[in-house]
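sorry for the late reply, my laptop died twice this morning and i had to redo everyting from scratch. anyway the thing you sent over, i finally got around to it. pasting the sequence first so we're on the same page, its 124 residues, then the predicted structure underneath. double check i copied it right bc i was rushing
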Amino acid sequence: QVQLVQSGGGLVQAGGSLRLSCTASGRTFSIYAMGWFRQAPGKDREFVGGMHWIGGTTTTYADSVKGRFTISRDNAKNTVYLQMNTLKPDDTAVYYCASGRTTHITRSGEYDDWGQGTQVTVSS
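ok and here's the structure:
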């Protein structure tokens, strides 16, 4: 099993930036995919971005965040980051990181373990 601990998030004005972190512990050698999802009040959880490192690193983003959000990975720290720039009020949600052994990184059901979630609020 893999444990994921998230940090970052908070309140920011529209146009601002935030960085979320997700640190993995436990059987980290078994995972080869990390994803970020978000859930706004009254809405379903949606894919934000993700990466897998089978056959090289592949990173994919939702159209709504493409060009504004960037996922990066620090192997030495077992940490994945979500850098969020040019934030909009529509980005307000609870953000979750997830880990798994999948190349279908846009599908939440493909992930095995989840972080605790962190609130991101963007004011207009």
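The chain has a mean pLDDT of 96.
thats about all i looked at so far, will dig more tmrw
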